[in-house]
Amino acid sequence: MTIECPIYYQEESVQHWLDAFAQQCPHLDVKDWQQVAHPEDVHYGIVWRPSAEFFARFPNLKAVLNLGAGVDGILRHPQLPESVQVLRLENAGMGAQMNEYFAYHVMHYHRHMDRYNAQQNNAQWQVFPGQPAKDFRVGLLGLGELGSSVASCLQGFGYTLSGWSRSQKTLDGIKCYAGAEQLDQFLSEVDALCCLLPLTEATRDILNKENMSKLPKGAVIINAARGEHLVEEDLIELLNSGHLRGAVVDTLRTEPLSSDSPLWRQPGLIITPHCAAQSWLAPSVEQISNNIDAM
Hints:
By secondary structure, the protein is α/β, with parallel strands linked by helices. Helix content is 32%, strand content 20%.
């Protein structure tokens, strides 16, 4: 017997997901959510940023399986029924990608690549003094599964690491801070701040002018967590004032970013289109299939 599963995928064509499920999981009849003939018979949905119409169309859902690791947006969804279980992907290749993303950008600033790019635009030839990795201080804002993985990756390059989390953590080779009372001290000792926090009411807007101003002058920020962590207007102000040397943002409050947004033209800012860690097809499909079979 096949299990009918609608899929809601807002970003682009859903066909690659349909093909992967058809190849790997023939016992699942996965189809576009608008093509389901009998929505009242559906118990499991596969989603990425589902709309209110999705939940309204399937009144007998038991669970939704998210095509990503972060489920905070679904859990806050006003149309999510209380009885519906929400399951997220566990890694599915995202951990390694996040390591690569942060390592790439930390080294971008450590090795002065932002300055060399600016020099090239002005046809300038000047060598900036290098520094050992141990003298470039990297701070992890968030020490959960992904934050700990990124920290372990950066340790291999010899960076001096510190980390902050809501509750106390102990990690080898990392100076750990915890709680609101230790946030200021943590921020004051960071050259590159890497945000990997989950989004909660306590962490929303944590990258605001007050907190970012506590970073040393010339620090950089790399945010691949959630757009709601960052107050974009405050970031622009601190970049323009010269307090921050640069910033990388992979997530924004409104996605996709409109073509007329001033962020596109902001000096010192690198924008990537929410691509730091994508869900690989094969392991994602396998996980979702296993979760549905287990239920």
